[in-house]
Structure formats: structure tokens, C-alpha cells
Amino acid sequence: MYNEGTALADGISPVETDSDRPDATPTHRQAPTPGRDPAPAPDPTTPATTEHTTPNRSAPPSPATPGQEKPVAANNPADEADHPASDAVPDRSAEPAHPHDTNPPDDRIPPGGETAVGPLLSTAPTATDSDHEAIDESEPPEAAAPSPESTGGTGTTAVLGEAATTADTTEATADAGDTSENTAADAGTTHAHATTATGTMRTEDEPSTAGTGSHAARTQGGGAGTSRDDRGDAEAARADATRKADANQTDADRTDANQTDASTTAAATSTSTSTSTPGTARVDTSTAGAMAAAVRDGVLSPLQLVDEALARIHARDRNMNAFSMVRAEAARAEARSVTERPDLDVLPLAGVPVAVKNNVDVAGEVTRAGSLAGGDRVAEADHPVVRRLRSAGAVVVGLTAVPEFGLWGATDSPAGVTCNPWNPKFSSGGSSGGSGAAVGSGMVAVAHGNDGLGSVRIPAACCGVVGVKPGRGLVPAEIGVDSWGGMTENGVLATTVADAALMLSVLADRPDLADLEPPQSLRIGLATAAPLPLGRVDRHWDAAARKAASAAAAAGHHVESAELPYQGATFALMLRWLANAAREAASVAHPDRLQPRTRTHVALGRLALRSGLLRPAQVDRIEARLLDHFERYDVVITPTLATAPPRARRWHRLPWLANVVANVRYSPFTPLWNLVGWPALSIPMGIHPRTGTPVAAQLIGQPGSEATLLRLAGQLESAHPWRRTAR
Predict the structure, then answer these.
(1) pLDDT tens, 478-528?
(2) 413, 455, 505, 667: which is the annotated catalytic residue?
(3) Taking the CB of the first residue and of the last residue of the chain, which one, N or C, has fewer CB atoms within 10 A?
(4) Which residues are 201's β-sheet partners?
């Protein structure tokens, strides 16, 4: 465990590993039946696998409201009557270890590795004051926004400056009267089981309790062959020999069963089912790459994968609100179509269930973009990225939640609050918060998102997954009116770097991006200073970036301290954040239905557009300074966020200023790279000891460096593997 008073030899403060995070409610397992052996414990070092049978199994229970949007008053953690508030960090001490549930200690750096850090040896964390750990419970400012009618261009500048200054020093968190929104996960959420004609189909979270051979017979027969009678020493000797043989077989069975990583026992599994049953195979379905390989090899069918994903969504999303719509029957029909494709054996995402953020078109569905202000027009054709996903064999199982127009860094709407899968008291981030929660909770292995001010990297960091924002032009954008003036890119959220690279290669139509060969020696800058003059960086987020830098140094890269030129970026970004909202709102069918915070944002955006303050020269000057700075570096590492995520609450009910303060305060590191259109990604680097939520590092490169960033991220993942999901 990390000792705050102890520094590592390389001078880079570590961050807590998953083993250091607060404990949570243990997973309840069914007690063994008297006279039967308990189920063997899963082996924490073995990749998650699922015991699958041949295709054509029956479907699991369909999710609530299959193929329909969630009702506005959906049950969610903001309802105190249903979900009492709890300040405790969820207890997960009894959860089985995942193969990626260990962050190796930093002392794994090989001898001499620390010398590659160079100037970092004398670099202290940016913020070490202990108050950075505390969670500020003060009420966010609720000052009324200025009247658009009485505010001119100069007034707009003053308001924006005041908002930015306030955001540097104030934290918007839940008030005592709104604690009902900070709730623990629904204790009634269970893992769904899907039954087949040949036995029981389980998700990758459920191990089989059935052994093989004589062990299965002993389980049914209550230990036959182990008792003694009066027939003399010969009979006793034979009984002893039989018992030893059975014990040896049991050990072998346990070794075999330990190949399955799971979180609950499959209590309903028939004792006659065994791993030796004809037509049964034990297959790894923990990653998108493994799923696609199993389908291409004919071991699994796309329908099996889709049914399992739907079962997980049904079991886990009731109070997480990751999905705004679940396409149960449509997804099953698509899975059957994929099975019949003649090119099935070469599809890179063959049968893989994916989630799509509900602000790009999916044929046959309404694209709401998190707002009630739009019409009910059903999309006639897929967005280009959806078309590429389907062409690669992926199946869209659902559309994920997004805050109105993707404007905000926390995901909520009248339909519900999207919670963090690691601690439901906190937000999953935004605006791709639904996709982040869906991947971070293990409902799907990969999801689509898009990023205009950090909207992929923010939820990826909050939910402990990999998030990739490609550079401008690599992946078709076509988001909203004008893709936020060219600032927004479609990207990927995934549990592993390999899956992120695989899905990005499909979205970009660049197969070479899936190649994760280690990069040549890189020049890496570590920049942990807050982008805002009065901003603070929580020391655990600071340490996450330093941990990534330490791992990079140990891998042979040259790492040194750096300072990024943020001058002028905050004002330019604020202007465009406002103006882009005004452009989006100009095309909605029912502007009177916009949320109050959005109406204020749009009104200020119209003033910004009329002020003449938005000039391309602003961005040109900022990018010129960055290009000059990056002459010394191939990659720069920063913390992805500055603080823990905001509380999970109904932010759309709060005033505009409270939302702006919360967004700017916790995510100052991500927006700059949207302004200039450069690639960036976020990777998990441990767990925050106070909130129980992940911490992460951001990797940034010049245009065209996506492959370099992915390969470096793959190296860091190998050095410090993370727990892939919260469940």
C-alpha cells in the first residue's frame, strides 16, 4: 500500500493501486449444499472466460422496455425514496480478482530505469496540500445569469471572465437537500443467466460450479467412496486409495475450474453439466478482440454474444442509466444477419456487441442528443461511423445517454442520472457518460463516443477505461450542425488498449492502427501544472500522470518535466463552447423545451457570435506555440482530470453558473486538444483512495500520432495493468 510519507527512488509519486481502494459490499455466494464440496475458487491470474455451448440457444430475459426509450421518470439514484443516500465508498473487498486487478508496485521499474527520468528526479508534485483530497460539500454558486437583452459584446466578455475566474476557485457539489442523488448501487441488481438446450449459458462474470469426471459424481453422491465399514483392513485400505484418487481428481478439477474468472457462482448450473460435455467450449469473451476471434472461428455465434450483452444490460443498468434505449429485438435480428454473412471469417468485429452514443444517427432510431427540444424524426440511414461498425460485423445493442447537446461534463437528463460504476455517488462524466458507464460496468466491451471538449476522455477517466479522441479528419465527424466548428471527433471507449486500437482502426478505415508493436524510444514531457492560473490539481491525479511517466521511463523512453503553453486557450475555448451551443439550438424543433442551463448558455452564445470575438487567428497563435513546444517532445503526459468527478445529481436543474464551475474545475486538461484538433487519449492509472473512483493519465501527440499514442499506451498497460471493469 502506498505510504504518503514515502517517496519512490525515482521521485515520482505513486498512486494507489486497485488493492488500496476502499472496500465495498462483498458479493454474496450461495452456500454449498451439505454433503457437497464447495465450488472451487477462481484463479485471479487467469483471463476471464465464459463456458459457451453451441449456437441456437434460447434468449435470456429481455431488458425492461426492449427497443424503447427510457421513460422520463425512470428509477435512478436521484430518487431518495427508492435509494437512500450513502457516503460509504462501495465495498469490493470480496470480489474475485480480475487478471487486470493488480497495479504492480512502482518498484517493478528495472534497475537503471529510474535514471531515464532525467530532470524528473527533482520534480515535486504540483499540488501537495492535503485539502486537495477533501471533497468540498459547499453549495455551488447559483447566481442568476445576465439578461441577454441587457448584455452586449463587452458584457459577454466580462461574464465569461467572471465565470472562468469563479471556476478556478469554486467547486460545484451536491447540497444537503439533494443527497438523495448520491446513492449506492441497487442491491437487487443481479447477474442474469441465459439457458441453453445443452446446459447453462453464463456471462463472463459467472463461473461454473460443476466439476468433471468423478468430481461431478462425488458432488451428486455426497462423497461416495470415502467411508469405512467393518470389513477389515483390506476394505479400509481400498477405501483410502479411492479417497486419495478422488482427492487428486478434485484438485485437477479445481485447477481446470480456476481458468474461469467470475464474480458470482452459477447456483442454477446443473451438476450434470461439465467442461467435457460435447459441444461445449471454454472461451474468453472478456474483450472485443476475443469475441470476434471466437465468432470467426465458429466457436460462438453473434446471437450468443448479443444475448449475453442484453442480459448484462438488463441486470446492471436499472439504476446506472447508461442506456437511453436498448435495441433488444433489433440487435438480435442484426446478429442473425451477421451470422449469415459470407465474409464472417474475416470481419474484425464479427458479432461484437457495441453501444453508440445517442447523438449520431442509427437507422430506425430517433437521434435525441439528450434533449427534448428535437423532433421525433427517425433516422433513415446510419451515420458513417455506425455504417463502418456494422460493416465490420459489430451489432448495435443500444444507444447511450448524453447530456443535452453534449454540452456538459456530467451526464443526466429528465430520464435519469448516469452514475459512475465504481461509486454511484459520483457522475460517470460527460458527455459520453453513458458509453463510459456501459463499458466501465462491463455491459459492453467497446462503445462509441465523441469528444468536443474532452467528452470521450472525461468519462473514460471517470469510469476507468481507455478513451481515444483521434486527431481532426482521421474519423468522419458529421456531428450536429457543424461538429462544433470542427472541434468534435468521433472516438472510442474500451476496456483495453488493444480493443480501443481495434475499434479505432475500424472507424478510421485504417487496419494498421490495430498494430500495437512497442514504439521506438520517445521523447516524453510530463506536464502536471494546472492549466488555469488559480486551478488546483488533486495530488492523486497528479500522481497518476507521474506513474505513467515512470512506467514510460522504465520502458526506455526519455522523460522530463515540461510546461505547456496554455496562454489564451481558456478564453478562446469558452467563446467557442458558448457559440457552438447557439448554433446547435438554432436548428431544434422545440426551443422552448431546452433545459434552463442550456437556454442561458445559448443566449450567451448568441452574444458571443455577435461580438466578433471569435477569430481563427486566436487558434492559429495557440497552435503555433504548441508546435514550437512539441519540437522537443513526441508525446506529453498530463493528468486527464484535476479532481474527482462531480456528484451524481440532476445537474440540469441547477443554474448555468453552477454547471460551468463544476465542468471547468474538474476537467481543465482536456479541451485544448479539441481546439487545435490534435489526438489524445486517457488510460487508467489506479484508484482514488477517498472516492473509490479511477484516476487516469492523458497522452497527447501532434497531428497524425494516433499510432504512437496507442503503442505507448499499450506499453503502459503492460507495466501497470488495471482492473478492466468495476464488476
Answers:
(1) 998 888 888 999 999 999 999 999 999 999 999 999 999 999 999 999 999
(2) 455
(3) N
(4) 194
